[in-house]
């Protein structure tokens, strides 16, 4: 088993694409570092098996959970996240849904904290244009925010900056840049 469990839900394929990019970039740091799971096939035991988790969640429609996460949501109450470090990344559309940008990320962050998990990988909100978000903790998002609809050109640089930060906060040595 790898050190990190990476779990994602996706309807459009954008979150799956981001998850696979994260896995590939981390495998370049250390082969076999990450196991990847689609939430549609994940179990509570799968999540519970890892000390380090990366959870990917898009915000659907107007501040709603993506389908796979919505179905899995009640099972989160079966997982004790105490002692686990959890990094989050989310996808959303800051212009079409500026009043609910990254809300699912915020809901997941609060659930993980409620269940005893430690969040890592906060990301600055300054480079985005939105009106409201449940994913804000001060001036930062609880995790990496990606907008493939409006800022796809920034995704690679954001991943390259976030992954070493996240690994350092996990306590896993990483090079200064992950590419």
Task: Please characterize this protein's 3D structure.
By secondary structure, the protein is an alpha/beta fold. It has one domain (4-170): Rossmann fold (3-Layer(aba) Sandwich), CATH 3.40.50. The protein contains five helices and ten strands; from the N terminus they run E-H-E-H-E-E-H-E-H-E-E-E-E-E-H. Strands 1, 2, 3, 4, 5, 6 and 10 form a seven-stranded mixed beta sheet that branches. A three-stranded antiparallel beta sheet has the order 7-9-8, with no helix packed on it. The longest helix has 16 residues, at 14-29. It is globular, with a radius of gyration of 15 Å.
SSE inventory with pairings:
Layout: E1 4-8, H1 14-29, E2 34-38, H2 44-48, E3 52-60, E4 64-65, H3 67-72, E5 85-91, H4 103-114, E6 118-120, E7 123-124, E8 136-137, E9 140-141, E10 144-146, H5 155-170
Parallel strand pairs: 1-2, 1-3, 3-5, 5-6, 5-10
Antiparallel strand pairs: 3-4, 7-9, 8-9
What features would you highlight for this structure?
3-stranded antiparallel β-sheet, Rossmann fold, 179 residues, 22% strand, 7-stranded mixed β-sheet
Per CATH, what is the topology? Rossmann fold
Q: How many strands appear in the DSSP assignment?
A: 10
Taking the alpha carbons of the first and last residues, their distance comes to 23 Å
Q: C-alpha Rg, in Å?
A: 15 Å
Number of helices: 5
CATH superfamily: Flavodoxin domain
Number of domains: 1
Strand content is 15-25%
Model regions low in confidence, pLDDT < 50 over at least 5 residues: none
Helix and strand pattern: EHEHEEHEHEEEEEH
Query: What structural class should be given to the helix and strand makeup?
Result: alpha/beta
Question: How does the major sheet shape up?
Answer: 7 strands, mixed
How does CATH name the architecture?
Answer: 3-Layer(aba) Sandwich
